[in-house]
Hints:
mainly beta; 7-stranded mixed beta sheet; 0% helix
Amino acid sequence: QVQLVESGGGLVQAGSSLRLSCAASGRTFSSYDMGWFRQAPGKEREFVAAVTWSSNYAAYADSVKRRFTVSRDIAKNTVYLQMNSLKPEDTAVYYCAARPPGVDSWKYWGQGTQVIVSS
Length: 119
């Protein structure tokens, strides 16, 4: 049973930093893509960032480039999202997701962690 558990959310002021963690368990993720998504109130869920588990290649949404950094710790089976220079528009529930190799859709999802950025 694959399980993704996010942590690290909270309430911060604009300009602050947060680091989200996603602990993965239940299988070997060596060939997976690991992603971060977010959903703000009244909006659709959107892509934030993703990293390949094997090569550490990363991709970002334009809205978070140069502010957010995604990384993974293979030994800890954990993916991180370092968020700097947070803005009120970053307020959302952040979800971790895993995509198996050769699959277009994100198959596994965490329960989400709330991030609130006050102005």
